[in-house]
Amino acid sequence: MNGKQRKTYQAIFEDPIHSDIDWKDIESLFNGLDADISEGRDSRVRIALNGIRAVFHRPHPERVTDKGAIKSVRRFLNEAGV
Fold first, then answer.
1. Fewest beta carbons less than 10 Å away: which of 17, 24, 54, 76?
2. Rounded CA separation 35/10 (Å)
3. What is the domain count for the chain?
4. Which domain covers residue 8, as residue numbers?
């Protein structure tokens, strides 16, 4: 993980939950963790990390991720043992 990915990781786990994290930064974090990323239908993105799988929706037309999605990413990372 590089420095920007570490900052994204820290922002995901801060309270109160951020509502200003760009989705591209979250995908970069997944890449830095060597997750398998595949495109689904429409705006879906499938992520597999340490045997745990999840499907997320890219935000559109905005580029930032909402609080509900940040909670889901947080839960996914915890379940994957990151």
1. 24
2. 18
3. 1
4. 3-79
Q: Where are the beta strands (DSSP E) in the chain?
A: 21-22, 36-39, 44-49, 52-57, 64-65
CB neighbours of residue 8 within 10 Å: 23
39: which 2 tokens? 């495109």
Number of Cα atoms under 13 Å in the Cβ half of residue 44: 7
**Max intra-chain CA distance, the chain:** 32
* 73 and 26 Cβ atoms separated by less than 8 Å: yes
pLDDT digits (tens, 9 = 90+) for 13-57: 999 998 889 999 999 999 999 999 999 888 899 999 999 999 999
